[in-house]
Amino acid sequence: MEVRIAESWKQHLNEEFEKPYFRPLIHFVKEEYTKYTCYPKGKHIFAAFDHSPFDKTRVIIIGQDPYHGPGQANGLCFSVNDGIQHPPSLINIFKEIETDMGLPYPKSGNLERWAEQGVLLLNATLTVRAQQAGSHQNKGWEVFTDAVIKKLSQEKEGLIFLLWGGFAKKKAALVEANKHHILRSGHPSPLSANRGLWFGNRHFSTVNKILVDRGQSPIQW
After folding, report:
1. What is its EC number (predicted)?
2. To 10 degrees, the CA torsion angle through 153, 202, 67, 86?
3. Rounded distance, CA 39 to CA 69, Å?
4. Residue range 118-155, pLDDT digits in tens
5. Are the beta carbons of 77 and 162 closer than 8 angstroms?
6. N or C: fewer beta carbons within 10 Å in the chain?
């Protein structure tokens, strides 16, 4: 299994790759991919970084775990490959964009189009065994992705972190709030959305207002 990370990130994360936890993590992941069906495909494990270079990252959305169904996960949180039925959380994300931004519901659930504009779609855990949600948690991925969040917070300014749900909200502790924008809401999953904790958060228009006020181009959601 080939694992490569974008050059723009490598220089910022090189020291992380040398830490004691990282080699056992990669060994675990390689073993899992050898023995079982795992997602996303090996070449897409670091796709979030490939599509949103360090210097161009402006917005960070944090997910928990890759989708564990066939053909769904493509390495970007909440995103699915073209032609794949939209999972419930993604449906609710698109519904909120419809009402918030007045945009039509998109056919494609592939969020690479967001990533290319500087939206880092980061799952806390980057891999999963097929049909076994959370099966690769607590193996080291969270240590790595926490380090990514800290590095972004330390080395950049004016980033916008979208923290949806209890798990993501805990990541606020890694962000220097005086340097960055932190937007919180319930998770877009039906359980949370149906309790009134997601719809109406207007995060997408809020992000664009912040960007435009800073003289940057808005995200084409």
Report:
1. 3.2.2.27
2. -150
3. 8
4. 999 999 999 999 999 999 999 999 999 999 999 999 99
5. no
6. N
Would you say 97 and 202 are in contact if contact means Cβ atoms under 8 Å apart? no
Torsion of CA 109, 54, 171, 14, to 10 degrees: 120
Q: What tokens does 178 get?
A: 């005086």
Q: What is the pTM of this model?
A: 0.96
Write down how long the chain is: 221
Distance CA 141, CA 150 (A): 14
Cβ 147 vs Cβ 67: under 8 Å: no
Residue matched to tokens 């944090």: 62
Q: Is 56 helix (H, G, I), strand (E, B) or coil?
A: helix
Per residue in 45-97, pLDDT (tens digit) is: 999 999 999 999 999 999 999 999 999 999 999 999 999 999 999 999 999 99
- Give the number of other CB atoms < 10 A from CB of residue 138: 9
